[in-house]
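Shipment paperwork, digital attachment
Item: protein structure file
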Amino acid sequence: MAAPKKGRRSPGGQGRPGRILALILIAMVALVGGMFTSGHTTPRLGIDLAGGTSFTLEAKNQPGKPNAINTTNMNTAVGIINRRVNGLGVTEAEVQTQGANHIIVNIPKGTDAKQARQQVGTTAQLGFRPVLSTTPVSKSPQPSTSPSSTAKDKKDGKGDKDGKDKGKGGDKADPSGSSSTPTGTPTSKTQGRAVTDALKADATPDPKTTGKGKDSKDAKDGKDPKPSQTPPGSPDVAALQKQLAELDCTTKEGMAKAREKAAGAAPKDTVVACKKDGSAKEILGPVAVEGTDVNGASAVFDSQRGQGWIVQLKFTSGGSKKFAAVTGKLAGQQPPQNQFAIVLDGEVVSDPSVSQSIAGGEAEISGSFTQQSAQDLANVLSFGALPLSFDVVTETTVTAALGGEQLRAGLLAGAIGLVLVIIYLVAYYRGLALVALASLGVSAVLTYTIMTLLGPAIGFALNLPAVCGAIVAIGITADSFIVYFERIRDEIRDGRTLRPAVERGWPRARRTILVSDFVSFLAAAVLFIVTVGKVQGFAFTLGLTTLLDVVVVFLFTKPLMTILARHKFFAGGHPWSGLDPKRLGVKPPLRAARRRSSAPVDPKEA
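Attachment content:
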């Protein structure tokens, strides 16, 4: 006897709806568990709901750039500061101009205000300058050494203890330090000769002043040449020595003054600057590689060489050539003139030495970095330098009183809307309203847990417009259920029973739901791209809830309807099921009526 043929599954049918329901329930349990495990059980709130910190930045006039404060530079600065703050994981920061020379930065509560202040106030003017001379700085006075001991110290390579910075392919560094300068204070004769030789090497000699004479004799004897005898294009060595002697790297005020003066110098100028840790002060040549030649930066933990956290730099093609040229020029020079200083905002971050030309377009900055300081430096270098210098003139704490009142009003409006939707569903769809309410509940749980997890993950913060987007999503989700329910009812009106109606109505309802949600998601994506600030919160929430609507309808509503269609309450068309054939206006099939009218008459009855 042949086995009976299996019936063909209805279009759009789901053979195992229970497994699909179990899948989405497992996902919900995992998300809720992850939320409690992370320690964050409430969404991160924006500045309008939770308060935060507000900074006011004032643009400063720069030396030699009287017209630098203009609309273009201010708008560029707003964009860079916004990207920097977002790089900290703060996606609800507000950055906007105020007046001609002020920028307002609002950061939500929960962000490190000190770290944010450093990010928004750092100009990030980066430059690679050759080191012409280095003088160690001691906190307590030390006796000066003789020229012979100075030379010996140079030969031994003793120096201040600082992190070693180098390029990829450069020589390995002693972790204890990279400076090859003497520990004592050099005499003016020895230091003057070194600076003069370095400046002469960098300067373009004038044939009229080059040759034998009193100037060359003085240089040979170690005496400082007169200003009028300095080669054209070279700075006054005596003036540089005086600036170096007056430079104070032992106090915060002195270092701030030195930093401001060096940051205001032109790239072609020779400057004096302090090291970031205050261990030395240096005379630096013109900028050989500018920060604009850096293509990107990232913080990496170097466990192989034991250097801890480092910042890796990647140069542009032009920057790679410049970096290879300057390192090739410095290679083979005597310390400290084989070093280049990485200068950030007028402060020497590090001064690595090189022994050969470094090609490849990559370099490293290493030293006493923590994870946070390395990430902060990589962040400001990645997003570029500000076109202007700014001072933080005010820092205030913003309260959430007004936002709290608006939130309560918004939640009240959302609750009223939700109650009206429930009343409509119960009055019109009766038993099917349970399916809609269960689907809304699943959507709410998914939305809440995902928003909560996105806070620590990507810095998402819930603001008032985002709350509005979530309220609007209630209507979008309910609309999907209504479309599906009406398709099922149409199939029942055509004379089909519930189980075939559920499966045959799904393909047409699915197409309508996908098209509707696609239009909503497209609108949210465009709104997110073309807007900034709080409006992006509305667009993000609308897009997220639209995607979740598709997930809920496909993985919860449809399988649940397939299971309920097997139960007598719905399959039998109970008056409170919402699928009562009489309420839907279903008439008996014409075929059955004809059979009854054309049935043969029994002769016995006749």
